[in-house]
Amino acid sequence: MSKLPGNAGVSVLGDKSLEFYRDPVSFCRQRIEKHHSRVFQCRLLNRPTAFICSVQGMRELLCEKSNLFLKDPTDLMTNMYGDTIVTTNGEEACLLRLSLTSLFTGSCLESSTDYIDSVSDRCLKDLSNSGEPVCAYSAFKRLGTELVLGLFLNVRAEEQPELYQEIAQLCTQHWHGLISAPVNVKVPLWSSGFSTALDARDKLMDIIKDKLENDKHGFVGSLASLPLPDSSSASQHLLLFISALIPKALSSLLTSFTLALSGNEQMRQQALEEPDFLHRVLLEVQRLWPPFIGGRRLADQDATLAGFLVPKNHGVIYVSHSVHRDPEVFHEPDSFLPERWSGRNAGQEHLLCSFGNGPRGCIGTKLTDVFLKEACMYLLKHYDWCLDPPSQDLEYKWLPVSRPANTPTISFTRLDPTRSDRSKTS
Ligand code: HEM
């Protein structure tokens, strides 16, 4: 068992949070090179923290040894969303997962598919109308927002445009508080953005509680009737589910998909004709451009990860971007190669962590899969697309949710429905 490479530094002065939040990818890359190790330590959020950038380390942390590493109940997520499953541990977390998972699987998921169809059609049908290049990220974020507000709150943009706008705006304000706080490490939770966010949260909670009391159908109705630990649990979880976090993550993946296939007609055609190939394309999209940088835990006792000692009370962060580019598992790790998922990496989806992994992995993966495939198929069936202008700076920013820092513009051209090749599937 070896000591973690690197230095956890002295309290406050040795803290590297700002450097990490500015550019987490370079932060990790530099240290991996310096220490010749994909596991190392630094001071993050003023706590000695092990950084996990290897597939083996991630699997041990999230799967085999997950019981030794806890969610942090004082995490920023608790301040923004209240007590939810995200920051809960032990038996309570197990029971919550059991209850909530039923909302995102089986018949509940099946009953969502018509709405997913209709919202994809409504939000994506006009991409080529202006004849000008469009900012696809914004269009996809609108789609994600319509999806979560319609599905989880029964508020549909076309039926209640004013209420929809009000809630969407409150979600944005709430979100800005979440992202304004972590950089103020030395004066935690103090910023004007943060107090605006708390006001927005209170207004959202009023709307949510009203819905839970009076709306008996759909997701809200099912959530209200679940056995949950206390009376505020349903409203706090609903706040989490409708927050800007999920639309941004969906938009991130759709944007990366669009960019990866932009100008590549052959790959688009294959993705349209072969569901397995589309699946492999989407695996490769989430491998290279995971929406979230990773997740954080606290060591509940001394433990080892990938052969290194992680002392009790150390923070641990898995960095999905770096895990996904571990050359031990993914050859040519920086290349977009969907075929790796039918070759060398066939059957290895469990080595990804875009949606977490193990017993605390994402409970929304099935819903996300259905939604992404529907939206991607819509794009493939109805459009050709390319970057416009062809040369743009596509450098990604990775926090709070990944996307190209300068929003790319894309020209969509409607496919001629009479064209023999693609018309078969239209
Ligand atoms: C592109 C979409 C999404 C991405 C990339 C994503 C990603 C993630 C990740 C990385 C985690 C694990 C965090 C950790 O290890 O600390 C997670 C957990 C979670 N996700 Fe998602 N998620 C997505 C969509 C959704 C949706 C649609 C829902 C439900 C509405 C959802 C609900 C949750 C919940 C409740 C947890 C916490 C589970 C637990 O702590 O036991 N996610 N997600």
Automatic annotation (TrEMBL):
Keywords: Heme, Iron, Metal-binding, Monooxygenase, Oxidoreductase. It comes from Labrus bergylta. This is Putative cytochrome P450 120. InterPro entries: Cyt_P450, Cyt_P450_B, Cyt_P450_CS, Cyt_P450_sf. Signal peptide: none annotated. It comes from the Eukaryota. Pfam families: p450 (PF00067). Belongs to the cytochrome P450 family. GO terms for biological process: sterol metabolic process. One of its GO terms (molecular function) is monooxygenase activity.
